TrEMBL record:
Pfam families: Sulfatase (PF00884). Residues 70-92 are annotated as: Disordered. Residues 4-92 form the Sulfatase N-terminal domain. PANTHER family: SULFATASE (PTHR43751), SULFATASE N-TERMINAL DOMAIN-CONTAINING PROTEIN (PTHR43751:SF3). Coiled coil: none annotated. It comes from marine metagenome. This is Sulfatase N-terminal domain-containing protein. Residues 81-92 have a biased composition (Polar residues).
Amino acid sequence: MNRPNVLLICVEHWSGRRIGALGHPMLTPTLDQLIGNGVAYTNAYATTPSCIPARRELMTGTFSRTHGDRVFNETLPMPSTPTMAQTFRDSG
């Protein structure tokens, strides 16, 4: 079985709808090429409105109420749950 290539693009304060391949007039040739050769998820939902807790949720698959990171200023250790990055690394 071939391992898939995964490219996760996370940005702040930018609408994913502003991509040429998704119908916007903005010129985004590199993103257009990535979408043309892969998958673009056009709907995303966050259970936390703050950036840092939301990214931690994405990387761990846990809710902020589980890992305790609910605000910007806190520096908390990562939960014992393996992160997406660790899982990818361990899978080669």
